[in-house]
Design goal:
The chain has four helices and nine strands, in the order E-H-E-E-H-E-E-H-E-E-H-E-E. The protein is elongated, with a radius of gyration of 19 Å. Strand 6 and strand 7 form a beta hairpin. The protein is α+β, with helices and mostly antiparallel strands. The longest helix has 14 residues. The chain starts with a strand and ends in a 10-residue tail after the last strand. Helix 3 runs antiparallel to helix 4. 28% of the residues lie in helices and 41% in strands.
């Protein structure tokens, strides 16, 4: 059976050691985390983790159940394109020596709408937020110029609608 993408939103206590406990749950069971973002929520007592992993669909329920058993986990939800909005952040430094290269790179950038956050005589640093596919396409386009370095946050997501994720805990 083919692996599918699983994205989980996990509401946890905002205490030290939470990240390690959740990550170790995945590694002990042989699931590779492809993306993990964590930050404090609007309530400083809680943090939200967005975990992306690729696994077989029959494992989705098991992963969710195992996470829910941890006392530090308050709520777990499976997110997909229909019930959530997602975004990533990319910072990428690209070679751009000479006016011709700079102009061509700016033309490529115009299609994607990234912000230029730093310019030197030999490089541009761009900041782009958006869906993973747009980030991937931008990286592919600018790679022809030579990527000096890049950092990518991974996916972060919220459920659609007016309700709060922690409303019923």
């Amino acid at each position: 059976m083919a692996e599918e993408k699983l994205v989980l939103s996990v509401l946890v206590d905002n205490v030290s050691g939470v990240l390690q406990r959740v990550a170790s749950l995945f590694s002990r069971r042989g699931y590779n985390i492809s993306s993990l973002t964590v930050s404090e929520t609007e309530d400083p007592l809680f943090s939200r983790m967005t975990v992306e992993a690729y696994t077989e669909p029959e494992n989705f329920r098991q992963i969710k159940a195992q996470l829910s058993k941890l006392e530090i986990v308050k709520k777990v939800a499976v997110l997909n394109a229909e019930n959530s909005v997602s975004s990533e952040l990319l910072l990428i430094k690209v070679r751009a020596k000479g006016i011709e290269k700079k102009n061509h790179l700016l033309e490529v950038n115009r299609r994607f709408g990234a912000r230029v956050v730093d310019v030197t005589l030999e490089s541009f640093t761009f900041e782009l937020t958006g869906r993973a596919e747009a980030i991937d396409n931008f990286i592919k386009e600018v790679s022809a110029f030579g990527i000096i370095e890049m950092a990518r946050t991974g996916v972060t997501s919220l459920e659609r609608g007016a309700d709060s994720f922690k409303e019923d805990i």
